[in-house]
């Protein structure tokens, strides 16, 4: 596998030299879908009601994104739409709302310098998280398939991550470990090392990516568009590194736990998981 990846890396170097000479730029339009799964006391909610809620939420959690890229830089941003607000589902007298975050959030990646800047919002305050790109130790499987007009190859990646769970009524967050499994399909026909969200590092554009219940699929790609591609660097917000931002997020969660711990409730439980 390592020899194959090395061979592809050399092939990519040759392709990139050609791409640079040609000034390769582009826009890739992705659609995302999420796996929604939850459970509640069957004495309080019938199975058919839970199934209906999950179906509604899955549909509403679909999002559209655009990846704008040059050889070395990219922007990743959700496409503004009327359905970009919180996902809300109602059935059998129950209502569930899920917020997927700020759709205006911009992610900038520079694969040449291997760093990124991402807009984040924490309790109403804007931040610019700037740090080194995560190093993905991709493993090639040798599998291939067609996505649209492009021949793609399969790569996988996994790692153990630390997570913390915030629960109503408890005074401290519970630490846990989770396994992140990622599957990517990339094409050497577009020789840039970009991909959806913060994923990168393969010898070709990632057209499909599955990440623990979240799937991104490129539905349309425009190479060297007539209107010039502009890569934007986020500038609004307080600059902070990834480690400090995660620590600040945990601090805010602890404050929320203290605020709600010990308060009487209706028997229902709210859980928030961070870190994965």
Describe the structure in brief:
The protein is α+β, with helices and mostly antiparallel strands and 276 residues long. The protein has helices at residues 2-22, 47-60, 242-260; strands spanning 26-34, 63-69, 73-78, 87-91, 94-98, 106-110, 115-122, 125-132, 139-147, 150-167, 174-187, 205-211, 214-223, 238-240, 271-274.
Write structural notes for this entry.
With about 280 residues, this protein is α+β, with helices and mostly antiparallel strands. It has one domain. Helices cover about 20% and strands about 45% of the residues. The chain is built from three helices and 15 strands. The strands form two sheets. Strands 1, 2, 3, 6, 7, 8, 9, 10, 11, 12, 13, 14 and 15 form a 13-stranded mixed beta sheet that branches. Strands 4-5 form a two-stranded antiparallel ribbon. Strand 6 and strand 7 form a beta hairpin. The protein is globular, with a radius of gyration of 21 Å. InterPro entries: GLPGLI.
What share of the residues does DSSP label as strand, in percent? Answer: 35-45%
Counted by DSSP, the helix tally is 3
Range of helix content: 10-25%
Give the termini separation: 27 Å
InterPro entries: GLPGLI
Protein name: GLPGLI family protein
Show the helix and strand layout:
Elements: H1 2-22, E1 26-34, H2 47-60, E2 63-69, E3 73-78, E4 87-91, E5 94-98, E6 106-110, E7 115-122, E8 125-132, E9 139-147, E10 150-167, E11 174-187, E12 205-211, E13 214-223, E14 238-240, H3 242-260, E15 271-274
Parallel strand pairs: 8-14
Antiparallel strand pairs: 1-2, 1-13, 2-3, 3-6, 4-5, 6-7, 7-8, 9-10, 10-11, 10-15, 11-12, 12-13
Organism: Algoriphagus aquimarinus
InterPro entries: GLPGLI
Protein name: GLPGLI family protein
């Amino acid at each position: 596998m390592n020899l194959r990846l090395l061979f592809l890396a050399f092939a990519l170097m040759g392709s990139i030299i050609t791409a640079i000479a040609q000034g390769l730029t582009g826009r890739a339009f992705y659609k995302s879908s999420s796996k929604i799964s939850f459970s509640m006391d069957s004495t309080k909610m019938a199975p058919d009601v839970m199934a209906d809620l999950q179906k509604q939420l899955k549909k509403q959690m679909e999002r559209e994104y655009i990846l704008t890229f040059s050889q070395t830089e990219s922007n990743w941003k959700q496409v503004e739409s009327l359905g970009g607000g919180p996902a809300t589902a109602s059935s059998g007298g129950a209502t569930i709302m899920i917020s997927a975050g700020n759709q205006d959030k911009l992610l900038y990646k520079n694969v040449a310098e291997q760093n990124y800047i991402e807009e984040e919002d924490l309790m109403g305050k804007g931040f610019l998280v700037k740090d080194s790109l995560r190093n993905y130790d991709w493993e090639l499987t040798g599998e291939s398939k067609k996505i649209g007009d492009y021949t793609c190859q399969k790569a996988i990646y996994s790692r153990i991550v630390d997570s913390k769970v915030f629960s109503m009524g408890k005074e401290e967050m519970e630490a846990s470990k989770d396994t992140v499994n990622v599957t990517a399909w990339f094409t050497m026909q577009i020789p840039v090392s970009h991909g959806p969200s913060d994923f990168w590092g393969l010898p070709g554009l990632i057209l499909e990516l599955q990440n623990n219940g979240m799937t991104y699929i490129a539905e349309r790609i425009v190479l060297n568009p007539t209107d010039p591609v502009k890569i934007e660097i986020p500038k609004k917000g307080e600059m902070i590194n990834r480690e400090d931002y995660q620590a600040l997020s945990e601090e805010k969660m602890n404050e929320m736990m203290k605020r709600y711990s010990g308060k009487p409730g209706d028997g229902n439980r709210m859980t928030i998981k961070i870190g994965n």
